[in-house]
Amino acid sequence: MAADANAQTASEYIVHHLQHLQNIKQKSIIDFSVVNLDSVAVSVILGAVFLFLFWLAARKATSGVPGRFQAAVEMMVEMVDNQAKANIHNAQSRKFIAPLALTVFVWIFLMNAMDLLPVDLLPVLWQGATGDHHAYLRVVPTADLSTTLGLSTAVLLLCFYYSVKIKGVGGWAHELVTAPFGTSKNPIFAVILGVVNLLMQVIEYVAKTVSHGMRLFGNMYAGELVFMLIALMGGAAAMSLSGVLLPLGHIIAGSIWAIFHILIITLQAFIFMMLTLIYLGQAHEHH
């Protein structure tokens, strides 16, 4: 499980596994010309897997007693639809938002689930395919901040879209300068309150977007690190004659954490979906 750990120190092993496969060498911390190719590729592949599985479920759907796969898909669709109805009261908007929420939930779950693969499995296969034993590859897109912030930014843009669609440009603009503190009949106080309200609205939008993406990223990044530490335990066992119990501890620790992590990846996908519905529901509300 930790093939490279034998030839590297613990810190070198972890640093190597935290590096992305990128289009160019990153020159600074913030460099928008850099693309994490591994995150993009895995996300697209898992998106295609999601579409194929649900197409297969729809194609084989029957009106009689459903099979296990159809029943699981129907339960998932019903769960998401109920949450959409509870947060989005506009039936027309739900025609797009409910399928969007389902896509968000399943897609993020699949991306999170990549963390359950052995740490070195895909990186070693990639190194063998490229012939480069130092090639980088990270396989958990949601442990990449650019992925999670990209998703949360897309939700923010949808909030803007529905705010304008439901309230109109004038109505939304009026809300931006009158909520949450209201306005005043005094022109000077009205201007001051308008600036303060607008500033508070900007802070709220930024805070919601950043926390939306950071919550998912933080949990998945931490889970990824734990799996790396467990993998290092296996590497230490292979190198140490005295550590006869480490292989057993490695297997037990890895199994326990993997079982617990199934709950984490499901919960994080559900939380991201729920926050998406809540934020889009707020965009439909008038203040």
Automatic annotation (TrEMBL):
Keywords: ATP synthesis, Cell membrane, CF(0), Hydrogen ion transport, Ion transport, Membrane, Transmembrane, Transmembrane helix, Transport
Transmembrane segments: 40-58, 96-114, 145-164, 188-207, 227-246, 258-280
The keyword Transmembrane appears for this protein: yes
Primary residence: membrane
Any one Gene Ontology molecular-function term assigned to this protein's record: proton-transporting ATP synthase activity, rotational mechanism
Biological process terms in GO annotation: proton motive force-driven plasma membrane ATP synthesis
Domain of life where this protein originates: Bacteria
Membrane topology classification: Multi-pass membrane protein
Pfam families per UniProt: ATP-synt_A (PF00119)
UniProt-recorded name of the protein: ATP synthase subunit a
